Amino acid sequence: TTSTLQVGGDGVPTELIQEINRPLERGSLFARASFDVSDAVNIYAEGLYGASTSTVNNSVNRHQTANPFTIQRDNAFLPDSIRDQMTAAGVTALTMLRFSRERGFVVTKVDSETIRGTIGADARIGSLELSAYYQYGRTVQDNATLNDEITARFTQAIDAVVDPANDQIVCRSTFANPGNGCVPFNVFGEGAPSDAALDYTRGVSASHAVVQQDVAAINLAGPLFEGWAGPISFAVGGEYRVERARVTSDALSQQGAYLFGNPSPWTGKYNVKEAYAELVVPLLRDVPLVRELELNAAGRITDYSTSGSVETWKVGLSYKPFDDLRFRGTRSRDIRAPNLSELFQAGRQSTSSVNDPENGNARILGIPTINTGNPDLKPEIADTLTFGAIYSPSWLPGFNISADYYDIKIADAIGSIGAQTAVDQCFQGVQAACAPIVRDQNNNIIRFDAFPINLASAKTRGVDIEASYRTQVGPGTLNIRALAAYLARQETTTPGAAPIDRAGEAGLSPFPRWKGAAQVNYHTERVGAFLQLRYVGSGRYDVTRGPNAIDLQHIPAQAYLDGQISFKPQVGDGSFELYLNVRNILGNEPPFAPAAGNIPVAVNTSLHDVYGRQFRLGARFKF
Questions:
Q1: Of 113, 430, 529, 565, which one has the greatest count of Cβ atoms within 10 A?
Q2: Strands (E), 444-587
Q3: Which residues face 522 on adjacent strands?
Q4: Which residues sit opposite 72 in a β-bridge?
């Protein structure tokens, strides 16, 4: 509802701020050539080209609570009834919010082109396998925000007054600058702005990005020597990688002139040096209660030019008490390094609105918010524990069932503090939250610097279960597979705030307790058929609220049926396939799950089907 944001009217039509289907065109080419220099040496080259174009209708041009505009009492388009009320009340100006249907959608158009080339060699040296390669990749992306509002022009255009010299409606700014080209913009009533005013107040915010990567790697693997329970094998290797990016943008965007977008130019580069070693050691074999016991250990040193060195490792055990049953467990430390954008992105301007507890909880609207990268970021660190079992009964060939438990703890998670959260936590004494807030000499917030920092921790725990059966039926092969995932914990902690465990939340977040799928696939040499049932479990809309806090706290479960048939006629020496894919065959509707905020989104799109029944007819050809 928008009842708190307006007087009268029909509210905000969701068709103006939501798009179900987002057009995407893409194509790719891949080629590979290889040559056997000898029986032990092979050299190869690969090439990949891909291109895509996507167009997204984001929403109509709009001014909401974060970016209202002001109308003066002498505005030429102001209805007389409102002007009279303002005069009687001694009000000289009013604040407005508006969804400008006449201006159409703000459209994001992204054209992307990628090339990747690889040359490499594989060689056998006795019982050892040696491989080395060099790879170059380059992506060029042009991003344009079409029909974007030029805020300074809009501000001038809505400040329309009557010129006393000729009784014509003009922009007030033309009195001081007659040649500025300003066209008066009427904000009162749908369809009120003229085409000339619409054209004057909109433009295209554009950026051009080039991202490049160079990778060189070498790996050596094979048996080391014969151990007491079997051959001890190893793998060692190293990699050197360079990542760099360059982004340019138009002059108006660099000035922060648009309502949306405003990309800033930036460049960034870093390099990574890695070395690893892995060892597989059979510990016991064919002794009482032990068919096989094996140790796997690995270590890696990674040196980032931006943040220094970090060590990661893995230790695992595999135990088979008898041939049909295997237990497995792994303890590891892993990392995720910040990407180029998180490190080097220059200021991208938006606006925020907050209640400031340091100034009597006053509502502050339209705070300039500068989104930047942070070159001081460190890699995220994850400690992972997994253990499970797989049963493959000899009395039922082709059948397997497995269950795996995982427990992941992430430290130094990369994220940004929202403006309101930062203001609240800073007021509570969390010093790290004060850094993004810029105040003037009167302690008023004048800017918010939103940059990523290593601020959060996260904990995830759950169980994955899988069962499969494969057998020959007539002239073809039948595959049956079932998967289930249970999420026990999805907890995030930020400084100064209590941990929030969102496991079981299926409204605001995509974390229902249960998800699953069941698949049946039958194929012969020429014909194939596939059916899949997808299941998304029920959950709460918002785990931070009580069971009776809101009407729609329970989000029901839903299932979707998909299918595909395919045919492979013989075409010369190549492989040709025709297929028909139908997604959501039964046309099941997703459960209603409205999002928070002023713009309602009725479905959790990361979990559920929103298109209804979809058909896809296609062909594949390999030569």
A1: 430
A2: 445-450, 453-473, 476-493, 500-501, 514-523, 527-536, 539-540, 554-555, 558-567, 570-571, 574-583
A3: 478, 529
A4: 93
Structure tokens given for 84 = 């009279």
Asked if residue 250 lies in contact with residue 205, where contact means CB atoms within 8 angstroms, the answer is yes
Sign of CA dihedral 158, 161, 166, 168: positive
Tell me how far apart the alpha carbons of residues 84 and 77 are, in angstroms, rounded to a whole number: 13
Q: What is the pLDDT of residues 265-283, one digit of tens each?
A: 999 999 999 999 999 999 9
Q: What gap in Å lies between CA 99 and CA 63, rounded to an integer?
A: 6
Mind giving me the DSSP string for 452-464? -EEEEEEEEEEEE
Residue 259: CB atoms within 10 Å: 22
The token pair that represents 278 in the structure block: 């892995």
Q: Which of 434, 265, 266, 445 is nearest to 351 (CA)?
A: 445
The residue type at 127? S
CA gap 68, 104 in Å, rounded: 19
| Cα separation, 79 vs 9, whole angstroms | 16
Indicate the SS3 state at residue 58.
Answer: strand
The span from the CA of 581 to the CA of 562, in Å, is 8
Whose CA is closest to 333, among 353, 319, 316? 316
- Span of 148-152, 210-214, 512-516, 545-549 with lowest mean pLDDT: 545-549
3-state secondary structure 178-242: CCCCCCCCCCCCCCCCCHHHHHHCEEEEEEEEEEEEEEEEEEEEEEEEEEECEEEEEEEEEEEEE
CA gap 448, 459 in Å, rounded: 29
| Residue 72 in tokens | 């003066």
Average pLDDT over residues 205-213: 96
- The mean pLDDT value for 72-80 works out to 94
CB–CB of 531/519 below 8 Å? yes
Residue 544 phi, psi dihedral angles, 5° rounding: -80, -5
Give residue-wise pLDDT tens across range 16-39.
556 666 788 999 999 999 999 999
